[in-house]
Task: structure prediction
Amino acid sequence: QVQLAESGGGLVQPGGSLRLSCAASGFTFSTYALGWFRQAPGKEREFVAAISRGGGSTPHADSVKGRFTISRDNAKNTMYLQMNSLKPEDTAVYYCAARFSGGGYASIWASEYAFWGQGTQVTVSS
Result:
C-alpha cells in the first residue's frame, strides 16, 4: 500500500524558512519521480517543484526559483522541500506526490501523479 506522509509545515514569519519532508512507504522509492504541489484557499492546485528518480532533474516553478529547493534521499525513502525567504503568498497546503518513472523525467503536471499525501499547512504571516 503506497503511503506518502508530509511533515514540517507550520506558521512562519515572512522571510523565514521551513523544511518540508515527505516520507514514503509501500513502493520502490528509487523508481518513482516525485513532486511538490500546493493549494491556497480558493485557488487551483499548482506545481511547486519536482525531482526525477535519481535526482538529476529538478524543475521548480518560477514563483519559487531561487528560494525553494527540492531534494530526495533514496536511502531514507524521503523527499524534502527547503523553503527560504518565505512570502505571505506561499501560504497554502503543500502536497507531495509520486509517479512511477522509467527514466529521468520529472513531471510538472499534477495529472501525471498517481499517489498523493494528505498535505501539510504552511502559513506565512507576521
About this structure: The first strand starts at residue 3 and ends at 7.
